[in-house]
């Protein structure tokens, strides 16, 4: 279909995440993400109480969140960062050569 699925989650006092909004976006551009967040803000007056936002490795999303929620701290999710680096290191470009095997061990 060409759409991107997004989910907005909140954390309960118990620490468990709960999805509060699923949405489709035509793209993942900054303008689209900002428009979606502004709609959410208009529909939810308590948006000013947001203290922290956790994201994956999307730095475009990071900039938009800083703009839309200036009082919130934006953090990278350790799981997603680790998974990204693990995938990156496995790429052939970064894979160690067989001749370097002894040096690595």
From TrEMBL:
It holds the Pfam family ZSWIM1-3_RNaseH-like. Residues 2-75 form the ZSWIM1/3 RNaseH-like domain. The lineage of its organism: Eukaryota, Sar, Stramenopiles, Oomycota, Peronosporomycetes. This is ZSWIM1/3 RNaseH-like domain-containing protein.
